[in-house]
Amino acid sequence: SFYYGTFPAGFLWGVGSSAYQTEGAWDKDGKGPSIWDAFTHKKGKVFRNETGDSACDGYYRVKDDIQLLKELRVNHYLLSISWPRIMPTGIKAEQLNEKGIQFYNDTINSLLENNITPIVSLYHWDLPQVLQEKYGGWQNISMVNYFNDYANLCFEKFGDRVKHWITFSNPWAVAENGCETGEHAPGLKLGGCGAYKAAHHIIKSHAKVWHSYNTTWRREQQGMVGISLTSGWGEPVDPHSQTDRDAAERYIQFHLGWFANPIYRGDYPEVMKNYVGRKSAQQGLGTSRLPTFSVQEKTYIKGTSDFLGIGHFTTRYVLQKNFPFLQVSGYHTDRDLAELVDPNWPAPGPKWLYSVPWGFRRLLNFIKTQYGNPLIYVTENGVSEPVQCTQLCDEGRIQYLKGYINEILKALNDGVNVKGYTAWSLLDKFEWNKGFSERFGLYHIDFKHKNKPRYPKASVAYYKKIISANGFPNPREVENWHRKAMDTCATTHQHLAADSLITHMEMVTEIVLPTVFTLCILICIVLLIFYLRNHS
């Protein structure tokens, strides 16, 4: 049932995005190439071969986008720094890009001038391509030191103003989609051990950066360093079946626990070590495909998070499913489980993203129990609509945000230590291998228009009301928000339709008319030649 009430005073409301998905300017002002630049420039890797070369033109639209943040009345903005924009080769000793550093200085200063707190992620997937080509990227232990050098440069240049740092955003996707399935950059298909190896080096990198901040910068800068982990919730198909309950537990431990357990408890989850170890032995391997931490490493890694960032989008039903050891084993078959969905769950966007709000409360309570009730910031939560839907009255997103934010309120009453919420995302943007086919933005972007104008969807008006009220005061008021939001979007949609018509007319004027004019001239020339030939 829906719970009416308000969040504690001082609860932080925000919105987020990432560098590669929004900035564009992929090769401008001294920026080096990233693995996503290289990946998207190969045909067949991304839907319709789209790229983030210009994305939302965020590099040139900082002031405009900060105006949107002011319009939303958010407390914070979660952004990421593009490593190759400030360090083109990824190696500090080789080259720094002062224009890139200035860009982020200007962005951070503009946010603070407008009373918006920057929460900064050091890594949202755009590894410098040089590090991938020279060393194999996250497959190589040398990344630990290169990443630490980069992080320390960020602390040095921006840490006097940035007090909330995230080392990695959704490292699960970096490891699994980047190094096992190859769906994401750098497109490696290293079945069996690629994802585990990448994750191992990422966890070590995270810990080293936390210790660097702790020993060198904390006393002076008084900030916090955490990590942002994205995880679904796994619910047993049959809650009375021990095998289903165990399978659901494995689903969470292989997803969230893979990274959270070493950071909060000092090692990989026991169930992960057991399952991957057993499957590796069945394959005839001498050691487990899941790497191990030494005693010193376990101590060094444990406790290296001042807060836990949580990204969450959806839920799955889970049941036991055995995968024969004769098959090529990898992350997905190591878990011995199958995922199901309820066909009655709403799916306002893509088929993977079902709206299941109650899963969020259960996930937050799991974190409270497993990891000693850490300080939590929700760093990503949102839903997309398909590209063909330019309708600004995004009813599905309003219901999604209402449901999921309400479950956080319930979790707070359960004693979970959540301090802030970040809606994902500010703008429609480049969605990795899906290109521009999925739209997560509170603001719609017309990518066909050269100026890429931003238009508020109904969810902007609705989210603003949640922020102003700091929650859900009473049924009548909340219902009134919904009605007003839908009224507002109808008007905005008329503006969008008019602007689209103007854009279409501009295209006609700029492309079609010159083409027709040229053809007319050519036809006249041909006719003139025929005429002269006949009369000579």
UniProtKB/TrEMBL annotation:
Transmembrane intervals: 511-532
Classification via Gene3D superfamilies: Glycosidases
The protein's Enzyme Commission number: 3.2.1.21, 3.2.1.45, 3.2.1.46
This protein's UniProt keywords: Glycosidase, Hydrolase, Membrane, Transmembrane, Transmembrane helix
Pfam families, per database record: Glyco_hydro_1
Cited SUPFAM superfamilies: (Trans)glycosidases
GO MF term set: beta-glucosidase activity; galactosylceramidase activity; glucosylceramidase activity
Catalyzed reaction equations: a beta-D-glucosyl-(1<->1')-N-acylsphing-4-enine + H2O = an N-acylsphing-4-enine + D-glucose; beta-D-galactosyl-(1<->1)-sphing-4-enine + H2O = sphing-4-enine + D-galactose; beta-D-galactosyl-(1<->1')-N-octadecanoylsphing-4-enine + H2O = N-octadecanoylsphing-4-enine + D-galactose; Hydrolysis of terminal, non-reducing beta-D-glucosyl residues with release of beta-D-glucose
Keyword Transmembrane attached: yes
Active site: E380 (nucleophile)
GO BP terms in the entry: carbohydrate catabolic process
UniProt similarity note: Belongs to the glycosyl hydrolase 1 family. Klotho subfamily.
The protein's name: Cytosolic beta-glucosidase
Species, as recorded: Campylorhamphus procurvoides
Name of the coding gene: Lctl
